[in-house]
Amino acid sequence: MILFNLMSAKEAESLRLMIVAGEPSGDAHAAALVRALRDEAAGVELEFFGSTGAEMRESSVESIVRSDDLAILGLVEIAQALPKFWRAFRALKRAATERKPDAVILVDWPDFNLRLARTLHRKGLRIIYYISPQLWAWRSYRVRNLRRDVDLLLSILPFETEWYERRGFTRVEFTGHPLTGEVRARYGREEFCRRNNLDTSRPIIALLPGSRHKELHRILPAMLDAARTISREQPETQFVVTLAPNRSREEARSDASSARSISD
After folding, report:
1. Which of 38, 88, 134, 165 is deepest in the core (most CB within 10 A)?
2. HEC profile for the chain?
3. In whole angstroms, how far apart are CA 30 and each of 62, 229, 264?
């Protein structure tokens, strides 16, 4: 595996790794990475600590910071949460300085993790960035930050390696998307429709409002209003709201109440 080749882990008896994720999706990918590393490093004692969500904690990653407390949406929430972010940043910096991990693995969350990469790389720590920031879509100037502060970038999209190479950053390895092979249909269309009281002959649109509370609160009502508009033009369309594992039906019902009814 790329990560263990970098650190010569096959020859090590133990490894101390700091891993930092900040959003539910990053938490899930980080937890999967932790499990994969443990499988890859049979016989090597691995110690993980860092910024964790529920899935990382279930994978026995020690919490220095609980990322659940840092999930926000919107400028007002950002302003209110700044002290939390600074406390989290200082706690992770202090933990890295004191415990001197063999490598720091930063998972997505670029606005926070790129700053952390700069601080910790200056202290001589090896920085591995998993899931590249989408610099090819916006703020491409930050490539220089990666060149300066990241020892290895693990990319999940096949075109990113060449994109970075054209901009002078060559320490990039394509690993494949973490969801490849993981997302499978639990039921066929007929069984799904039977379980959810849907008509198999009519089109179905899934509404996915997100995994954060604020996303559900702000985005779901707008989605339901859009569904109402679509229903007027295409009354045969059926809608299904899909909730993240960390959100409840009660939350969705409460937030949906602020939308206009989608039935005429």
Report:
1. 88
2. CHHHHHHCHHHCCEEEEEEECCCHHHHHHHHHHHHHHHHHCCCCEEEEEEEECHHHHHCCCEEEEEHHHHCCCCHHHHHHHHHHHHHHHHHHHHHHHHHCCCEEEEECCHHHHHHHHHHHHHCCCCEEEECCCCCCCCCHHHHHHHHHHCCEEEECCCCHHHHHHCCCCCCEEECCCCCCCCCCCCCCHHHHHHHCCCCCCCCEEEECCCCCHHHHHHHHHHHHHHHHHHHHHCCCCEEEECCCCCCCHHHHHHHHCCCCCCCC
3. 13, 39, 44
Nearest to 150 by CA among 136, 168, 177: 168
Q: What is the pLDDT of residues 82-111, one digit of tens each?
A: 888 999 999 999 999 999 999 999 999 998
| pLDDT band (50, 70, 90) for residue 53 | very high
Locate 144 and state its tokens: 């220089």
Q: Output the pTM of the full model.
A: 0.74
Number of alpha carbons in the 13 Å side-chain half-sphere of residue 47: 10
d(CA 161, CA 198): 43
Scanning the structure block, which residue is given the tokens 């926000």?
72
User: Residue 104: is it exposed, middle or buried by C-beta count within 10 angstroms (0-12/13-18/19+)?
Assistant: buried
Q: Which two tokens stand for residue 47?
A: 């110690």
The one-letter amino acid at 155: S
Cα separation, 225 vs 52, in Å, equals 35
Mean pLDDT of 135-159: 94
